[in-house]
Inverse folding.
């Protein structure tokens, strides 16, 4: 897609600045941004619906432009961003700054750039005679587990028209991305019995038993490496080409001369599309039960357990899917890509909506100090959205 680097409408840049100014770090509320967007759309005569979380501190926003008919397209993006603490930014991360052709700000790439373009084009989209609707679906808590999107997705085909396809505007440098692995984040907890380290036989060492679970995860990873090619899918080339086991954090014990009572482990699976993650998790449950029984033999009140934290389905390639075909047509791409990071795309697919990932910005700068996007990327996204609207108007 060839676009003049300076062609990005100033409206997109100004909207991006407006969105970046809202400090929507996942640990905080996103309602300031959501209410701002709802007010902006209301000024255009576009009604927006909020889908709040359980305590009302955050919300998804869903809005429809065009006829309330089945067969339209969803433009999906998450409003939350990752923290900036400990990062030596050269500018205020919550003020968009243009320098040397780059637009710096937290979320400029991941992924407020896509949302900014969609909103900046809303006045034009509103004037078009669309035969099929375009839906905005802006979610919360994607960065910590894609918790928000499912509550909005559930409306399509029930309280809202059923959509034919979805574009998730994560930063792909406007490449058409058709697949990513799933994310299965879990915890393991060991509760033992404290004792003086000179008499370890009188206690139950939680760290030792957690070590047995770590050894199990290490062996599991070896098996999954060997099994990786069995689940390889056409059109989905992953690096590495197998389901991975991640060990993220372990906390346990107090001092060296006390048998540790508690130990906690954060771990994950990144399953390939098509891999039965539940079957793998069932093996972890079985190992946990085995360790739990061993701990109870040492102390009746001891336990070992594993639990799920956030499970996000993989995005699978759809070689015959409408979203993939249309995105390639609109971008002029002659090929597709696969990414390592997770998105909400698999959640849309599970709801029966053909989905691809395509948006402005570079994932290589996301979550980092001095995150940025460019006018060229915004311009390419503008051209893409306008072509999508032309498709909806056919």
């Amino acid at each position: 897609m060839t676009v003049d680097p300076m062609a990005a409408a100033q409206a997109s840049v100004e909207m991006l600045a407006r969105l970046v100014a809202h400090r929507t770090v996942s640990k905080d509320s996103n309602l300031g941004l959501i209410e701002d967007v709802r007010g902006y759309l209301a000024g255009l005569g576009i009604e927006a619906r909020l889908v709040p979380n359980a305590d009302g501190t955050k919300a998804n926003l869903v809005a429809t432009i065009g006829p309330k008919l089945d067969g339209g397209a969803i433009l999906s993006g998450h409003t939350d961003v990752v923290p900036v603490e400990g990062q030596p930014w050269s500018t205020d991360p919550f003020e968009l700054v243009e320098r040397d052709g780059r637009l710096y700000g937290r979320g400029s790439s991941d992924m407020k750039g896509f949302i900014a373009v969609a909103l900046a084009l809303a006045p034009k989209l509103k004037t078009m005679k669309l035969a099929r609707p375009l839906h905005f679906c802006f979610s919360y808590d994607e960065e910590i587990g894609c918790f928000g999107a499912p509550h909005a997705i559930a409306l399509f085909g029930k309280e809202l028209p059923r959509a034919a396809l979805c574009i998730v505007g994560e930063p792909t440098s406007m490449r058409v991305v058709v697949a990513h692995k799933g994310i299965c984040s879990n915890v393991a907890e060991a509760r033992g019995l404290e004792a003086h380290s000179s008499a370890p036989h009188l206690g139950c060492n939680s760290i030792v038993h957690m070590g047995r679970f770590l050894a199990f995860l290490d062996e599991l990873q070896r098996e999954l490496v060997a099994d990786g090619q069995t689940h390889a899918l056409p059109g989905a080339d992953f690096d590495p080409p197998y389901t991975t086991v991640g060990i993220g954090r372990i906390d346990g014990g107090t001092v060296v001369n006390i048998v540790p009572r508690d130990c906690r482990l954060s771990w994950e699976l990144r399953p390939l599309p098509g891999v039965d993650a539940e079957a793998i998790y069932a093996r972890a449950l079985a190992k946990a039960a085995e360790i739990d029984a061993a701990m109870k033999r040492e102390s009746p009140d001891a336990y070992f357990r594993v639990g799920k934290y956030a499970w996000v389905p993989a995005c699978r390639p759809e070689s015959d899917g409408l979203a993939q075909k249309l995105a390639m047509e609109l971008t002029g791409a002659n090929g597709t890509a696969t990414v390592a990071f997770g998105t909400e795309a698999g959640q849309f697919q599970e709801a029966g909506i053909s989905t691809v990932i395509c948006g402005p910005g570079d994932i290589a700068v996301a979550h980092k100090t001095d995150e940025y996007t460019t006018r060229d990327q915004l311009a390419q996204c503008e051209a893409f959205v306008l072509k999508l609207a032309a498709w909806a108007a056919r």
Remarks:
- Residues 169 and 358 are 5 Å apart (CA to CA).
- The longest strand covers residues 303-312.
- The two ends are 22 Å apart (CA to CA).
